[in-house]
Amino acid sequence: MTDRRLGGLLAESAGAWIGPKSEVDVRRYGNASHGQSPSPLLGAAFLVFLATAVPLHGEDWPEWRGKGRLGVWSEDGILEKFGAGGLSFDWSVPVRWGYAGPAVSDGRVFVLDYRPDENSRDLSGTERLLCLDEETGRVLWTGEWRTSYSSLMASYAIGPRATPTVSGNRVYVVGATGILRCYDVADGKLIWEKNYPEDYATKIPIWGVSGAPLVEAGLLIAVVGGQEDAQVVAFDKETGEERWRAL
């Protein structure tokens, strides 16, 4: 994020309950030089990535809680409060249901959502990963997969909850029913896939799978919750081959 704009990203679905039949916007906020300054507090229904009002190179936010999962934003020159007029935004993109926050890496924004089938009796639907251009909000590519939320409590059956994990030229996502996927960042090609219930006999909790996978060296480490000592599983991040399991 290198510009004079706030460089912020708002996902109104992130970290908050989004009710049935609702769609929300992912928004990038605009120039902060017009008396519009960001609050250091995050509202309950918002996840905001803020940059600064001066030309700097802002750090990416490539995974849950930011780089290294530290929950720390290390920018300088942060404005301390909103102006009376609030924030303007550069672009707005509708997204479907979900809890998952966005990840930002190398000029791209990644966010998960879900659309239920119309009149479905078994909570079947489609989970989706969107890749957006950070500057314009243009959808660069999407990846979709079918699933059913029948094993989830109805109040939780409204979308994925795990923030995408971006590492180099790969982005890793896991849906609410334990479908783990690896995509090519550049073009959205599916590289490999795992299905926790099918591959590891995982019993999906009533709130769904919520643990974002973690990249460590050449491994992708995931809380799978599987049988036969497979609560935690490490995969080769490039091929998806299992390297070890534990607990």
Structural class: mainly beta
The rounded Rg comes to 18 Å
Query: What is the string of SSEs from the N terminus onward?
Result: EEEEEEEEEEEEEEHEEEE
Q: Count up the helices.
A: 1
Largest β-sheet summary: 4 strands, antiparallel
Percent of residues in helices comes to: under 10%
The poorly predicted ranges are 1-22, 30-56
Name the shape in a single word: globular
> Within the largest sheet, what's the order of strands?
4-2-3-6
Mean pLDDT: 81
β-sheet strand percentage: 35-45%
Describe this protein's structure.
It is built from 1 helix and 18 strands. Helix content is 2%, strand content 42%. By secondary structure, it is mostly beta strands. The termini are far apart.
List the helices and strands and how they pair.
Blueprint: E1 2-3, E2 5-11, E3 24-31, E4 47-49, E5 56-57, E6 89-95, E7 103-105, E8 108-116, E9 124-133, E10 139-148, E11 165-167, E12 170-174, E13 179-184, E14 190-195, H1 196-200, E15 214-216, E16 219-226, E17 230-236, E18 242-246
Antiparallel strand pairs: 1-5, 2-3, 2-4, 3-6, 7-8, 8-9, 9-10, 11-12, 12-13, 13-14, 15-16, 16-17, 17-18
